[in-house]
Amino acid sequence: MGLKMASATKYSMVMQILSLTLCLLTLSCSAFTSKDYADALAKSILFYEGQRSGKLPSSQRLTWRGDSGLSDGSSYHVDLVGGYYDAGDNVKFGLPMAFTTTLLAWSVIEFGNSMPSQIGNARAAIRWSTDYLLKAATATPGTLYVQVGDPNMDHKCWERPEDMDTPRNVYKVSKQNPGSDVAAETAAALAAASIVFKDSDPSYSTKLLQTAMKVFDFADRYRGSYSDSLSSVVCPFYCSYSGYHDELLWGASWIHRASNNASFLAYIQSNGQTMGADDDDYSFSWDDKRAGTKVLLSKDFLEKNTEEFQLYKRHSDNYICSLIPGTSSFQAQYTPGQPKQSHVLPLFLNRLQELLIVLN
């Protein structure tokens, strides 16, 4: 009973932190209306339609974009049509595409109920990627296709994807040429997306999760960095500078959350120490997943009293505090805010620090 009450108290404190944060944001952004934020959200999701590769659907809203990359993979006898182009390139890079998908899915998991007018478009954006990732993961046994397009050639010619005439080379990782980083991130994307579609499309959700488990097993069983296997094809564009341990722990954490499979909890417990659980890391990106993993696992500690994850919650606190001005571990840099609201921040930070002390 005492443990449950303590957990409830901690959860209440977390909600106070979130409430204070929202209050601060409301005060600091009073010049904007809810419509402005709704429009920003809509445009953020619409952006992905401009990055689509493949045969565009009738529901495509950016009508100036046409079909492209319709023969991707054909010269290798696989179907790799679809997915997203990277930024202004016509290359489909598997590592950042998968990471983008994981974060899109995470945003819907956590905040989907707060964006009812955009939830359909958000799911469509996720599915456009996962449909492609499923092809890449299942086309050839023991293989994951991780890139379409030669980036060195592509960067020499900036052109519309509808008109591109650069080589559509296909690159893959395999048992002999492993890529644990890109494979584990792909597994994370598929697992996170399986949660998104669990209620709206159960059969698709099951397919995503089952594939995620198989891809993760491939990533873990045949260890190595895709940067070593593919060299100048992925470096310096999306070189895996942080190695692959962070992706393995990240992927296992997402499958654990999606499946509640005890074997993945055991995997996290057994491998966490060697994969970054003890590291305080102050960045979160397509390359380094350690901070994100700790926040993800902290949720289990706060909501389910999973004591094994208390360590991750402590490191998550350190990461969050590194972003907050006035804390002893503050490391971030911010552009100037609104001077007229400057008196609000110290009061907020004082209360936040008090709550963090109680939580710890």
Task: Record keyword descriptors for this entry.
disordered N terminus, three-stranded antiparallel beta sheet, mainly alpha, 4% strand, 360 residues, 13 helices, globular
Structure description:
The protein is mostly helical. The protein is 54% helix and 4% strand. The protein has helices at residues 2-28, 34-50, 94-111, 119-138, 151-154, 180-196, 202-221, 226-230, 245-259, 262-271, 290-304, 310-321, 344-359; strands at residues 92-93, 143-148, 170-174. The protein has a 3-stranded antiparallel β-sheet with strand order 1-2-3. Helix 9 runs parallel beside helix 11. It is globular. The model is unreliable at 1-15, 17-32 and 339-360 (pLDDT under 50).
What's the SSE pattern?
HHEHHEHEHHHHHHHH
Helix content: 40-55%
Structural class: mainly alpha
Distance between the termini: 20 Å
- What composes the largest sheet? 3 strands, antiparallel
Strand content: under 5%
Let me know the average pLDDT. Answer: 85
The number of helical segments is: 13
| Uncertain regions spanning at least 5 consecutive residues | 1-15, 17-32, 339-360
Number of strands: 3
Strand arrangement in the largest pleated sheet: 1-2-3
Shape: globular
Characterize the quaternary organization of these chains.
Answer: single chain
Short description:
It contains 13 helices and 3 strands, in the order H-H-E-H-H-E-H-E-H-H-H-H-H-H-H-H.
